[in-house]
Design goal:
With 135 residues, the protein is mainly alpha-helical. The protein has four helices and no strands. It has a domain of 91 residues. Helix 1 packs across helix 2, helix 1 packs across helix 4 and helix 3 crosses helix 4.
C-alpha cells in the first residue's frame, strides 16, 4: 500500500513538474510574441519619455530600475494573452511576427494605432454633433 501511495505521489509530482515546465514554456513563447509585436520599443520609449524629468546624474540608475519592471509587466501581459490564445495560436503568431510581413506590421503598428485613434476621435466628435441635434 505504501508503495502504491509513493508511486502515486511521484507520478503526480512528475505530472505537476511537466505541466509547470509546459506552462513556463508557453509563457516564454507568449512573452516572445509580445516583444515581437513592437511592445519593447513602445515601453522603451515610455521609459525614456518619463525619464526626462529625472536629473542626468540619476538617469542611469532610473533606467535600470524602470527596465527591471518590464519583467513583471511582460509576465502579466502574457497571462492575458494566454487566457485568450492557445499555445498553438501563440506559436503561429510568433512565426508570423518573425516573417517579413510580421516585422513590417510590428514596425508600423504604433504609428497606425495613433493615426487610427485620431480618426476615432474625429468620428466621435462627428457623432456627438449628430446626437446634439436631437437633444
Amino acid at each position: 500500500m505504501k508503495t502504491f501511495v509513493l508511486v502515486g505521489l511521484l507520478t503526480l509530482g512528475m505530472t505537476f513538474n511537466l505541466n509547470a515546465q509546459s506552462d513556463e514554456s508557453f509563457k516564454n513563447d507568449t512573452i516572445e510574441f509580445i516583444k515581437l509585436t513592437g511592445a519593447t520599443t513602445a515601453f522603451q520609449n515610455a521609459i525614456e519619455q518619463i525619464g526626462q524629468m529625472v536629473p542626468e546624474d540619476k538617469k542611469a540608475t532610473y533606467v535600470i530600475e524602470a527596465e527591471a519592471t518590464l519583467v513583471d509587466l511582460y509576465g502579466k501581459m502574457a497571462d492575458i494573452y494566454m487566457a485568450e490564445f492557445t499555445r498553438n495560436e501563440i506559436e503561429q503568431l510568433v512565426e508570423f511576427y518573425k516573417s517579413d510581413l510580421g516585422k513590417k506590421l510590428a514596425s508600423k503598428q504604433m504609428d497606425l494605432m495613433q493615426k487610427a485613434m485620431g480618426l476615432g476621435q474625429s468620428w466621435g466628435m462627428q457623432v456627438q454633433a449628430i446626437a446634439q441635434k436631437y437633444q
